[in-house]
Specification:
This protein is of the alpha+beta class. The protein has 1 helix and 5 strands. The strands form 2 sheets. Strands 2-1-5 form a 3-stranded antiparallel sheet, with helices on one face. A two-stranded antiparallel sheet has the order 3-4. The longest helix is centred in the C-terminal third of the chain and has 12 residues, at 51-62. The chain starts with 6 loop residues before the first strand and ends in a 12-residue tail after the last helix.
Length: 74
């Protein structure tokens, strides 16, 4: 039996901040801009079985992407 992923990673429709939403809820208030929105209307970027895994996914999504050809400046 597969375990249902309880936490969804979505983006706020106003400020585009990554948010962790509990899949049991219908709506969420953004922690950055305080806008309340329906989570069922938004695309799910990722899902996680627990809050710890969800925080790790959001941290990875927030990390800037660098390319191999781009030199690092120290």
């Amino acid at each position: 039996m597969t375990e249902k992923k309880r936490f969804w990673i979505i983006k706020c429709p106003r400020c585009h901040t990554h948010q962790i939403a509990d899949s049991r809820n219908k709506s969420k208030t953004c922690s950055q801009c305080s806008r309340r929105f329906e989570i069922l209307d938004l695309p799910i970027l990722a899902s996680a079985k627990d809050a710890r895994e969800a925080r790790a996914i959001v941290a990875d999504l927030k990390m800037p992407r660098t390319t191999a050809s781009e030199p690092k400046v120290i």
